[in-house]
Amino acid sequence: MTDRRSAAEQARFETALTHMFEHSIRFNAVLGLTVASLAPGEVQLRLPMKEDLVGHFSHGRIHGGAISATLDALGGLALMVELAERHPADSAEQVMQRFSRFGTIDLRVDYLRPGLGTHFVGRAEVTRLGGRVGSVQCRLHNDQGTLIATSAAAYVVA
């Protein structure tokens, strides 16, 4: 049986991952992305609607690029959480080091409805995590719970 990180080490990992995601990745900070959940299988983030993200000025809709970037970041975040689960004995530093090898291979976004809302919530599901490539499906809802976009993405993870 593999040893698991202690509760304190898991908390260190979650704090480090949240800080990296929200602050160290400057583009995420520009978008205003915040981590809502790091629970395995239930990774979520929040994107606030703000004037700088408006893509269609006469309707106040969020720009498709902001949606795409959010879904891409969410997929990477979900894979980090999944990798941490796959390597339960690794320290926070060891898991965080794995992120340096990440990169998006492919991202397909389907825009389903206009991006209207005060904020948006993204949820991700890791569909496959191999030794080199991980695949993720994401969904983005507005503050009313309306599904506005989905994505399917592949990432290099090693």
How are the secondary structure elements laid out?
Blueprint: H1 7-24, H2 26-31, E1 34-37, E2 44-48, E3 54-56, E4 61-62, H3 64-86, H4 92-98, E5 103-111, E6 119-129, E7 133-142, E8 147-156
Antiparallel strand pairs: 1-2, 2-6, 3-4, 5-8, 6-7, 7-8
Helix pairs in contact: 1-4
Walkthrough of the structure:
It is a single chain. The chain has four helices and eight strands. It starts with 6 loop residues before the first helix and ends with a strand. The chain is 34% helix and 34% strand. The strands form two sheets. It has a six-stranded antiparallel sheet with strand order 1-2-6-7-8-5. A two-stranded antiparallel ribbon has the order 3-4. The chain has one domain: Roll (Thiol Ester Dehydrase, Chain A), CATH 3.10.129.10. With 158 residues, the protein is of the alpha+beta class. A hairpin with a 4-residue loop joins β7 (133-142) and β8.
What is the domain total for the residues? 1
Taking strands numbered 1, 2, ... along the chain, how are they ordered across the largest sheet? 1-2-6-7-8-5
Number of strands: 8
Q: Give me the CATH fold name.
A: Thiol Ester Dehydrase, Chain A
Question: How much strand?
Answer: 25-35%
Distance between the termini: 24 Å
Q: Helical proportion?
A: 25-40%
Main sheet specs: 6 strands, antiparallel
CATH hierarchy, class: Alpha Beta
Could you state the oligomeric state of the chains shown? single chain
Going by helix content, strand content and strand pairing, the class is alpha+beta
How large is the radius of gyration? 16 Å
